[in-house]
Write a structure and sequence with these properties.
Blueprint lengths: L6 E6 L2 H17 L4 E6 L1 H6 L2 E5 L8 H6 L1 H18 L3 E5 L2 H13 L4 E4 L11 H8 L2 E4 L5 H6 L4 E3 L3 H5 L6 H7 L8 E5 L4 H21 L4 E6 L5 H8 L6 E5 L2 H7 L2 E5 L2 H8 L4 E5 L3 H10 L7 H6 L5 E4 L5 H13 L1 H17 L5 H13 L2
Parallel strand pairs: 1-2, 1-4, 2-3, 4-5, 5-6, 6-7, 8-9, 8-11, 9-10, 11-12, 12-13
Length: 381
């Protein structure tokens, strides 16, 4: 039986979405080798064989002020994606995260009679739960990555499927910890601290200087401490070098091996976001730092109705990892928490235990495969 070649249009605006879409497409190819993928994304999607028509690195920004600054470019990307919907007439549009942009794109696709699968729900449990109804009008299916999210969609009779968190499958080191310590030139008898300032340029600008200053303070207390930084694909060498050159610290920068880097660490300073969940899955104690422009922060504080921003804390519904937000994200506070993790064994053990519970809550994984099967199910109806 000859099946008609299928075309899926992907829209991913950030580093994590790029990875999720790539993994999903690789699973789709196992089921339907002739499947064609195109759209907006980054390096991971391109490597998976998706035809990238717009590089999302140009619009990977967060916060109200940053979005306003990049508005013209974001608008251009949206117009281009809408044109692809109209000219390519894909069998399915898969919107991955990047909420506001993808909401507009989904609405346009729906008007054009194209089926829409939205992957990674907006955080309706944190703010604007009324969005569930709005999304219900522009999508055919919402694929959620946390088990507790389905209830919000079920309540409004919006088609929803829990597919599992994609990080569960992908967060695995390629080598053993001992092999990695040797490969990265680290001494296992001395404390190792990871710096994860983020995958966006504006996160690096806001957080890396603070993290480096905190690391200096940690080293003053614990002179043997070693520092390592896993470089995100979306961050240029030049941007990192600007900050690292100004620091007296020796920081090992490792590309394309985040999980191998994290598993070597005794403690990690990280920005908020998916990284916190990945660190939790590797059960490494951490402190979360988060800084936005003042306007974005105060708007968020006014709109957001959740006691936590860190995903490990949200998943367990309690504070298991310290969150240092805005003016609290200082070098002093970060260094104090990292030093405590490194020197107070009972404290570190308790955090480790709680992070193991986060891992348990997220289950067995299979998210990318479940997404591929869900897409094929939608294409066959």
């Amino acid at each position: 039986m000859n099946l008609k070649p299928l075309t899926i249009l992907f829209s991913a605006g950030e580093s994590s979405g790029d990875q999720h879409a790539a993994n999903m497409f690789l699973e789709l190819q196992k089921q339907r080798p002739d499947i064609k993928g195109l759209g907006m994304g980054g390096a991971k999607m391109a490597q998976a064989g998706i035809d990238i028509r717009y590089d999302s690195a140009n619009i990977s920004v967060i916060g109200v002020v940053e979005v306003i600054k990049h508005y013209a470019e974001i608008r251009r990307a949206l117009t281009l994606m809408q044109e692809l919907v109209a000219t390519e007439r894909p069998d399915l549009l898969v919107c991955v995260d990047y909420k506001e942009f993808n909401f507009k794109l989904a609405r346009y696709a729906k008007q054009q009679g194209i089926k829409v699968l939205f992957y990674v729900s907006p955080q309706v449990w944190a703010w604007r739960p009324g969005r569930v109804k709005a999304y219900g009008k522009v999508i055919d299916m919402m694929a959620v990555i946390f088990p507790f999210e389905t209830a919000y969609y079920d309540a409004e009779k919006v088609p929803v499927r829990y597919v599992g968190h994609p990080s569960v499958d992908k967060v695995h080191a390629r080598y053993s910890k001992d092999e990695d310590l040797s490969r990265f030139g680290l001494d296992k008898n001395k404390p190792i601290v990871g710096l994860l300032p983020g995958s966006r340029a504006n996160e690096i600008k806001r957080l890396l200087p603070v993290m480096l200053a905190a690391a200096e303070k940690v080293q003053a207390n614990l002179p043997e401490c070693q520092f390592i930084l896993p470089q995100a694909d979306s961050i240029s060498d030049a941007l990192l070098d600007d900050y690292l050159r100004q620091s007296p610290l020796s920081v090992s920068v490792i590309k394309n091996q985040p999980y191998d880097v994290i598993q070597c660490c005794d403690a990690v300073m990280t920005t908020s976001g998916t990284a916190t969940l990945e660190i939790a899955l590797l059960t490494v104690p951490m402190v979360i730092a988060y800084k936005l422009s003042s306007i974005t922060y105060w708007l968020g504080k006014w709109l957001i109705n959740t006691p936590f921003i860190g995903l490990p804390n949200i998943v367990l519904g309690k504070s298991i990892v310290k969150e240092l937000i805005q003016q609290e994200a200082t070098a002093e506070n970060l260094s104090e928490e990292i030093t405590r993790i490194l020197t107070d064994q009972a404290y570190a053990d308790n955090m480790h235990q709680n992070l193991s519970q986060v891992k348990q809550q997220l289950g067995q994984g299979g998210g990318s495969k479940n997404m591929a099967l869900l897409a094929l199910e939608m294409l066959s109806t």
